[in-house]
Amino acid sequence: MKGRVLTRASSWSRGVALAGLLALGLAAAADTGNPPSRVPRPVVDAGQGDKCVANTDVMRRNHMRLLTHQRDETVHAGVRPRDTALEGCIACHASRKTGSVVGSDQNFCQGCHAYAAVKLDCFECHSSKAQLTSSAADDGKLAGAAQ
Amino acid sequence: MKIAYREINSASPRYWAAAGALALLALLGLAAAYVMEEHGHVITGMTNQIVWGVPHVFAVFLIVAASGALNVASIASVFGKAMFKPLAPLSGLLALALLAGGLSVLVLDLGRPERLIVQMTHYNLKSIFAWNVFLYIGFVAVVAVYLWTMMERRMNAYSRRAGTVAFVWRLVLTTGTGSIFGFLVAREPYDSALLAPLFIALSFSYGLAIYLLVLLVTYRATARPLGSVVLARLARLQAIFIAAALYFVVVFHLTNLYLAQRQDVERFFLWDGVYSALFWLGQVLLGSVVPLAVLFHPRLGKSPKAIAVAAGLVVLGGIAQMYVTIIGGQAYPLDLFPGMVATSTFYDGVVHGYVPSLPEIALGVGGVAIAGVIVVVATTLLRFVPERLDDSLIAGLDERVGPPARATT
Amino acid sequence: MSTIDRGRRQLIGFGAAAVAGIAIAPGVRLFEIAAAKAPGDPVSGKVRWGMLVDVNRCASDCSECVRACNRENRLSGATRETDSQWIRKIDIKDASSGRTCSLPMMCQHCAKPPCVDVCPTGASFKRADGIVLVDRHICIGCRYCMLACPYKARSFVHEALRDQSPEVPRGKGTVESCTLCVHRVDRGRQPACVEACAASGHEAIVFGNLNDPQSEIARRIASYPTTQVRADLRLDPGVRYQNL
Hints:
- The complex is a heterotrimer.
- By secondary structure, chain A is mostly helical.
- Chain A is built from 4 helices and no strands.
- Chain A has 2 domains: 1-36; 37-135, no CATH class.
- Helix content of chain C is 30%, strand content 17%.
- In chain C, the strands form 4 sheets. In chain C, strands 8-1-10-9 form a 4-stranded mixed sheet.
- In chain C, helix 2 (64-73) crosses helix 6 (192-199).
- Chains in contact: A-C, B-C.
- At the B-C interface, helix 5, helix 6 and strand 2 of B face strand 2, helix 3, helix 4 and strand 6 of C.
């Protein structure tokens, strides 16, 4: 005996059954809104971040676009706003313990970026620490500059 | 007469040794690029004074040679010399391979190579560098189409048109490459309209030299017959191209020597230090005079070994020339205050020192190896190389060629 | 009675208005110059920032401008071949007469910058107010602008950096140069080198709006002979030198 030979009909019905199971599984997952995940969801220290620029879901999806737009405005047109400058974001969102938005997976920027596996390029050049007298909070007084 | 093309036989241990060596060098180049990106350029010999080093020497050499390697095919398609038709597909392949090798080195040396996508989407149209990016990408497309018209029998009728487009394109491309340096008004060793035609002449010479080397090595290694007529024609062309390149170099330096303003620059390049040695011994003697002497010699000029040596010397001389141009040009200090002697903490007024580092050399050689790997793989998988290029085949193609000469190995 | 009163009142009224107008007018003019731009506003071409260096006042044993720049921008201050130097002191000696002098050299903020022309991505750009900058988000680190600069003003960051100033982001793999302290200028202050030179007592550097004929710098350029370095290249730098 060479073993059972799969007939066309039986392999087709297997495929349908598998597809049906998958669909049910996905539907169930979507239904609860909380897909099963092996990676623990991040618990981030959002700092003081309460009076955000916009709602959390809007910011989650669009913060990169807002940042890109703002950086072009600042670099090319010299527009230096208080709240939507990167320094402003950091001033509010820096962890109150470490004063930074990166450094551990509990920090605001690094936590979600590590979870989503999206490389954070900003802090190779930008300072990630909130300053005591950040210019975003207090125009005219420059943080860290020798007086 | 039908020309039969055949894939390279990969069955021999020598083939795998060669392919393996090239692959290893290419991998070392990639490793060097990774290390440079991780630690920054501080581990290289490049500094704020010499910003383009050995990788760029190799990259520019490969890119210039790439456009010149297409010449052989152009002579067949554009200038209608039927004798060169069998040589054309390999010429097109070499052009693509050399360009790929040169561009890899250029991209891998960037301070931010991951931002290549930024370069592809943001163009400053006033920058000759940006224009070069367009031209390089276009060159790949144009040569790919040209190869297709040559190798797909049904498209053969269009190979003349494709060849003309490719020919014009590569002239514009090489003019652009020369202008990268020629447009630099800041630096006396560069700032010259003559650099563009010089690079065109160099491309003819380097490209053909590499083509000759690849041809001779391939036919020797695969024991395919290579006749003396083909070799004689290519050798004569090589001599003409070396002479043309030398002409532009001579005019460039003679003009500079005439100007009081450029006396110091000329002393730097022709008399003092390491760059003069590279210029006279590398570029002029080994790279131009000796090959010319060999190629015009009544006996040596017909010997495949001697021709290979001459071609190899042209390549070495070319790399020396690129080193003198690119690195020597940066070593000479900028003259901010004519008639004054300047000193500062930022190396004003002094010749800038440069010591090539191992990662740079590995990256540059890696680019050559990438080109080599492409050629080896392509000729093994596809039919780029004619089965034979002996004199009887050539005689059949070109009526003006006389009876086949005495065959030499 | 009312006719006479009205006439006098009108006269007094006009007089008061005229005096008030004369009193306020210079203030309006000063405000327009001093606060050339509020931080939230975009820059405009109405202003062109420039500097004037009086070489006679520049002492060859003083590098306060360099030290201030290093502090302000958190540069290392080291002078190896791979270290960034945004401003440096050049000591010049006339080859025939032997006369020596010293001056600071930095990005000259040309009106026709070759570095902007050659940048393949457009990262090197000139702002509307004349300051030439590198947009380090777009810079791919090809260093072509460094070849093109006639003043060798640009530096490449050869290694990873830490503890950058939040006002002055800088990082490995990009090119940088004197920003004319754009983060200060945009907030109505002066570049660090200018302030330091003044504080040291030499007062060799003047900073201001070249487009404003009433500014200190414009008045000096109009009255005294000044030169631009490598003026034959016709790049029209924003930095000029007096008594060179």
